[in-house]
Amino acid sequence: MARWWILPILLFAGPIGAQQTFYVATTGVDTPAGGTLAAPWATITYALDRVPDQSTILVRPGQYTGRIRIRGNFPVGVSVRSELPYQARLRAAEAVLTIYNDNADIQGITIEGFDIAHSGAGAAALVVQIQDGFATQTSRITLRDNILHDSFNNDILKINNGASQIRVVGNLFYNQSGSDEHIDINSVDDVIVEDNVFFNDFAASGRPNANDTSSYVVVKDSNGGDDEYLGARNVVIRRNVFLNWQGSTGSGFLLFGEDGTANFEVFDSRAENNLLLGNAANTMRSPLGVKGSRDLVFRHNTVLGNLPANAYATRINREGDNPPIEAIRFAHNAFADGAGTMTDFSDTLPADLSTVRPSTLVRNAYWNAGSALPHDPGDMLNISGDATRVTADPLLPDPATVPTPWWNPAQNQFNGGHARIRDAFVALVEAYARPAAGSALIGAATAGADVPPDDILGRPRPANGADLGCYEVQSADGVFANGFE
Prior knowledge:
Elements: H1 8-11, E1 21-24, H2 44-48, E2 56-59, E3 62-65, E4 68-69, E5 73-82, E6 88-92, E7 97-99, E8 106-112, E9 115-118, E10 128-131, E11 138-144, E12 147-149, E13 157-160, E14 164-169, E15 172-174, E16 183-186, E17 189-194, E18 197-199, E19 217-220, E20 232-238, E21 241-242, E22 254-256, E23 266-272, E24 275-278, E25 288-291, E26 294-299, E27 302-305, E28 314-317, E29 326-331, E30 334-336, E31 346-348, E32 361-362, E33 365-367, E34 407-408, E35 413-414, H3 421-432, H4 473-477
Parallel strand pairs: 1-2, 2-5, 3-6, 4-7, 5-8, 6-9, 7-10, 8-11, 9-12, 10-13, 11-14, 12-15, 13-16, 14-17, 15-18, 16-19, 17-20, 18-21, 19-22, 20-23, 21-24, 22-25, 23-26, 24-27, 25-28, 26-29, 27-30, 28-31, 29-32, 30-33
Antiparallel strand pairs: 34-35
């Protein structure tokens, strides 16, 4: 199977040659002669069944009710886009978008700019599902700049059963249902989740908060060898903002592995350049979790705020038949509790983590508002095990009063006054991730493979003397510690 990073033209360069535009509208009619602005089609599925490769399908404003089957095989790629951002509302009392087909491959489709949610209580499971068919492949699918929210049954987005080369970029997620996730990434290959905002604010949707939801993002393999992959692999969670925990005390923002299978549930994956904000009073298990996985890297993330959690940084453990966890690495992260309430750094029992090496904790920054940093001799991972640690004040803002950027359709803007998801994303990053002048984070990273090429805003990092955490001050200011601009 081709890797998506060797298919840049298909995913990122856009259409080649002549591009045709077709239209869908609530007033349209599904007839072969339609698809024009003057005579639009009525459904996205009908349009996908008829447009040529390299086309754009513009969906006019209004509410579209009922399941939409996304299908088609496009070697270069087709874009399905809301004509006006977030003005095409997709609703159903079941899965709103299903991106799988038992009879044919689905490839090369981008879904962009929609407001997607369940129609209300009583809906069947899932808002969006992407998976392989029984004998077919689903790959090169992109969800970009969508508002994905308010599942009333199960996950908001499920990517599972052998799907590959999936990109989830620049979306806004909030309010899943019950013990499920914003995104469930399950038995897949080559999935990138980047530039998204994840939070819950049930009151903003007029829903009660039962404090029972699961992690925002889970990566796992719950079906063993039932599909082509045994263990999710090559999953990257990068440049995202997580905030406003309203879930169960047993979950957290990001979890690798969950279901207690006898195999490694996740391997060869990483989380980098993420901002994780402790701005809510609800207790979580830990912001970063690992169960039954191997070869995971957490680098240049920022965990910030008074974060009520059993473990401020991570819980690393096994469930059921999981093998002991192997080769976990935390490098160049910033863990900063400005309230001085960090009482436990990790929950990591000796029986659950196979080996702790000097490379497990490398050059992270830790701050507990000047109070003593926690140490638990019963845990395998302690701050004292980071021989090159930084323990000075990171000079990061207090995120106690972060506004949640839920979508207000009546005002056609996000809470906080932003018109686009990217605007809300950048505002959160600039408000809470940027260290002040004189911060111990600036220029403190060591050179090597633990430095990603960019920061949370996609700006370049220097190879030597990068900043710790998700934000590169030097890139924003244009002058780097190693002397180049």
